């Protein structure tokens, strides 16, 4: 009787499962674009921003009437401007108009932007009409309001019960009020657009949770919407500050710095010195001072507000 031996089963080898695809490269693993991609923009910025700024800085230490060769005078232009009462008054007026623009336009833009981000009836049509001033240039807006506020045939001439003699450009207080109003009318739609986009980006789950907790519309606005608009608010304020420090066309067309020098802001005084008085050295010094002031104030706002350390408030974004 023979016995049959069963052969041992073959050794089990590694099982071959479905082949996995390699993970797709994420944004962190993909290399950043090379410097060559930014070279055209860098060259454009250098030619039309950096180089002219350097030339203005050099010219601020020169005496030049636009004819002949500039003569180096050191800090003479700067010392004359520091002793110039019109220059000192123009700095105060520039700061005043800038503060008025921020104080008036910020709350108005927030309210309109949040409203435009909703789903009200006829919201789209009203928003389009409201944004029309944003499509016009500062020159066109200034010419328009100069005609509308003309004391002889404009609105003040037909409403003497409200405007008195109708000459809104004859006194400093009313002239400054006109400048602040025209700037608000033109630039509020731009900042409203910023807040509209930011309000639409607020996560809806925040409002849903607030409704569950019994929070009304006003509490949602002050405790959810406003905190979520903080980044946009700081961006808008920086743009307002820089725009206020460099305003020129509005003053040139509406008041021409008058009456007298009561509305002569720094940007207009730069134009008056350089292109009316042919003192391009002093005009360059004012221009350089405006650039430095706008940069410093913007950096202070960013630093104090902590804007440079902020993170996105969007869901899922760290």
UniProtKB/TrEMBL annotation:
PROSITE patterns: ABC_TM1
Biased composition (Low complexity): 1-15
Xref: Pfam families: BPD_transp_1
Main localization of the protein described in the UniProt heading: membrane
Residues annotated as domain ABC transmembrane type-1: 91-301
Topological type in the membrane: Multi-pass membrane protein
Family: Belongs to the binding-protein-dependent transport system permease family.
Protein name per its UniProtKB record: Sugar ABC transporter permease
């Amino acid at each position: 009787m023979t016995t049959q031996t069963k052969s041992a089963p073959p050794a089990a080898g590694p099982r071959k499962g479905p082949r996995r695809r390699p993970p797709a490269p994420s944004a962190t693993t993909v290399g950043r674009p090379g410097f060559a991609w930014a070279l055209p923009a860098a060259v454009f910025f250098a030619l039309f921003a950096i180089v002219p700024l350097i030339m203005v800085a050099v010219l601020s230490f020169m005496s030049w009437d636009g004819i002949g060769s500039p003569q180096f005078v050191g800090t003479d232009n700067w010392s004359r401007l520091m002793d110039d009462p019109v220059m000192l008054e123009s700095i105060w007026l520039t700061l005043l108009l800038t503060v008025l623009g921020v104080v008036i336009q910020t709350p108005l833009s927030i309210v309109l932007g949040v409203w435009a981000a909703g789903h009200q009836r006829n919201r789209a049509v009203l928003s389009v009409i409201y944004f029309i001033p944003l499509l016009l240039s500062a020159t066109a807006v200034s010419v328009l309001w100069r005609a509308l506020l003309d004391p002889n045939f404009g609105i003040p001439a037909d409403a003497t019960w409200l405007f008195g003699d109708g000459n809104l450009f004859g006194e400093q207080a009313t002239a400054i009020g006109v400048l602040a109003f025209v700037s608000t009318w033109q630039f509020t739609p731009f900042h409203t657009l910023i807040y509209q986009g930011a309000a639409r980006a607020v996560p809806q789950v925040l409002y849903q949770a607030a409704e569950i907790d019994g929070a009304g519309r006003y509490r949602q606005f002050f405790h959810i919407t406003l905190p979520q608009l903080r980044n946009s608010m700081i961006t808008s304020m920086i743009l307002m500050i820089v725009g206020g420090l460099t305003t020129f066309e509005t003053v040139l067309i509406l008041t021409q710095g008058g009456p007298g020098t009561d509305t002569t802001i720094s940007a207009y005084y730069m134009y008056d010195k350089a292109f009316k008085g042919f003192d391009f050295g002093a005009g360059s010094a004012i221009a350089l001072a405006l650039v430095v002031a706008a940069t410093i104030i913007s950096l202070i706002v960013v630093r104090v507000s902590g804007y440079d350390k902020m993170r996105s408030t969007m869901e899922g974004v760290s």
